[in-house]
Write a sequence for this structure.
């Protein structure tokens, strides 16, 4: 399935349903990918509740707590495991605006084995 298509977003949500319950790890996140090969930025959002995506759709979310912006190339590198999300953030390759403290509750999830495993499964099904 094509990277960041609605089918891909649905599959990511499906894979995350097995994630450990993490009370308080909840936020609505707007994502923006820049420098997309076809020339148009990709926008999508995720509603994460207690560590699991409950909704994820292409488009804008007026109720988002904040926005995370990264280049398309960096997002692909993160999916492939070539770039750690925390490293990308620390290097300024991911920018965050809005309620940064609320979005930060989601960062520990990216350090877990289940997160890495779900990305590996997703990568195996992804076409770029």
């Amino acid at each position: 399935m094509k990277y960041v298509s609605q089918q891909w977003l649905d599959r990511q949500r499906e894979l995350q349903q097995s994630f450990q319950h993490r009370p308080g790890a909840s936020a609505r996140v707007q994502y923006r990918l820049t420098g997309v090969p076809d020339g148009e930025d990709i926008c999508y959002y995720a509603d994460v509740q207690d560590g699991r995506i409950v909704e994820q759709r292409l488009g804008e979310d007026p109720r988002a707590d904040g926005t995370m912006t990264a280049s398309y190339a960096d997002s692909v590198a993160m999916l492939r495991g070539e770039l750690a999300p925390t490293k990308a953030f620390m290097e300024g390759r991911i920018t965050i605006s809005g309620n940064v403290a609320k979005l930060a509750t989601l960062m520990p999830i990216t350090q877990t084995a289940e997160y890495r495993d779900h990305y590996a499964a997703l990568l195996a099904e992804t076409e770029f």
Residues 6-124 form a domain with the Nonspecific Lipid-transfer Protein; Chain A fold (CATH 3.30.1050.10). The longest helix spans residues 113-124. The first strand starts at residue 27 and ends at 34. The CA atoms of residues 65 and 90 lie 20 Å apart.
